[in-house]
Known about the structure:
The chain is 38% helix and 12% strand. It is an alpha/beta fold. The mean pLDDT is 95.
Amino acid sequence: MPIGFDLDEVIAPLLRYHCLYLNQKYSCNISEKDFITYNFWNHYQATQEQAIKDFFEFCETDFFHSIQPFKEARPVLERLSKLEKLHVITARQDFLQPVTRAFVHRNFPRIFSKIDFGNYFGKKGSHITKSELCDRNNIYLLVEDDPKHILPVSKGIPVVMLDKPWNQNVQPSRNIIRAYNWQDIGEIVQEFLVNPNFF
Ligand SMILES: [Mg+2]
């Protein structure tokens, strides 16, 4: 059964690039370290509606198109892909499917067998929760950073939570284990593959 990996902030530092865009647009000086929640509108002078608009605008810019993955991810994913099927489970919107598929294929060729989209905050089409994406794809372990997905998904399957400023309030529990870096992710997932009762 496949293992799911979130894309943004787990494989690719999207927020770092989004901050560069916001700093340019609003002449401010924010960085991802300031984000104690992953609701972008809490961290600069914007309503939720404006922040979503800014995000869609950012997706059209060179900032978005120059996102590079975390370099530590590739060797770990390469190793794990030899042991189990890997899926990308992303909340990204449907309109980002082509650019996202190209990004994954360019940076992680032959590593992921599938990419699933939740269309969170999508302008069109229905929104599918990560719990449902995991269910539909028989995902039995998810690597994720965002509390709004971690908490519901962990009711069904174990979650490896990558340590970020915005998930400091999530307490490790029976189904949630904190990883501090990609080396940790690799060790935890490998341990889980050998012993699924590891959590
Ligand atoms: Mg994420």
